[in-house]
Amino acid sequence: MAMALDQARAAAARGEVPVGAVVVGPDGRVLGQAGNATRALHDPSAHAEVLAIRAACRTLETDRLPGCALFVTLEPCAACAGVIAAARIARLIYGASDPKSGGVMHGARVFSHPQTHHVPEIYDGIAATDAQALLTAFFAARR
Amino acid sequence: MAMALDQARAAAARGEVPVGAVVVGPDGRVLGQAGNATRALHDPSAHAEVLAIRAACRTLETDRLPGCALFVTLEPCAACAGVIAAARIARLIYGASDPKSGGVMHGARVFSHPQTHHVPEIYDGIAATDAQALLTAFFAARR
């Protein structure tokens, strides 16, 4: 999660919403990591989770990541949760809760319907204070 | 929708699930079009809708597509619905209903929660018979 927080800080420095994500393989190897880059890439799907998963899939030349863990600093939105399910991520570990935009424990609750093709193990609240502090500082500075 | 069906047929010919999508601008110009390519691209997020939206965003050098319409041959899944909301697509026009994996009228119902940042106008069932026939033939041939 420390690496994910580093990615979130780097995103903030680029003017992107500070969220970071890291995909770790079954053997503990880092397969992909990214921060939000929707603005820089002109891509509304370029959330940290999706970019880290895409990077890991490129590394392994696959479109599924069974046995892998995704660390992300913020509760994934519905779009990211859907990609996490599609990628068959085994464990989702996230930091801050996101009542406004989250799609795991809030709103769409993507993993809580039979239409999801996969449900990861979920661990929330990990380093949540640090993750939330980054977001709060970022949005406070923009007001 | 005829162009989206052409993209779906091209996807099937590549061995990908036959779904196609087209983004049309406010002036009627085609800004992006794609078929599913999750296998070829090693990218679990490479559904037709997401690829068409990414292409349109590249065309306009933006991460939002207000005023644009997305035509897609199948009800979007939760991941795609989330990206459609993030991109601020004005109108979503889709073909076949997807009770098994859909995230618009089924399961996560992504646009039906306050956590969605945007709700498009939705028109369903457009050329649904043709879209469903492509999917049925594709999966029948693989059994």
Please give a structural write-up.
The structure is a homodimer of 143-residue chains. With 143 residues, the first copy, chain A, is α/β, with parallel strands linked by helices. The first copy, chain A, has one domain (1-135): 3-Layer(aba) Sandwich (Cytidine Deaminase, domain 2). Chain A contains four helices and five strands. The first copy, chain A, has helices spanning 2-13, 48-60, 78-86, 128-142, and strands spanning 20-24, 30-35, 69-74, 91-96, 121-123. In chain A, strands 2-1-3-4-5 form a five-stranded mixed beta sheet. In chain A, helix 1 (2-13) runs parallel beside helix 4. Chain A is globular, with a radius of gyration of 14 Å. The mean pLDDT of chain A is 97. At the A-B interface, helix 2 and helix 3 of A face helix 2 and helix 3 of B.
Question: How are the elements arranged and paired?
Answer:
2 copies of one chain form a homodimer.
Chain A: H1 2-13, E1 20-24, E2 30-35, H2 48-60, E3 69-74, H3 78-86, E4 91-96, E5 121-123, H4 128-142
Parallel strand pairs in A: 3-4, 4-5
Antiparallel strand pairs in A: 1-2, 1-3
Helix pairs in contact in A: 1-4
Active site (chains A, B): 49 (proton donor)
Catalytic activity (chains A, B): adenosine(34) in tRNA + H2O + H(+) = inosine(34) in tRNA + NH4(+)
Organism (chains A, B): Oceaniovalibus guishaninsula JLT2003
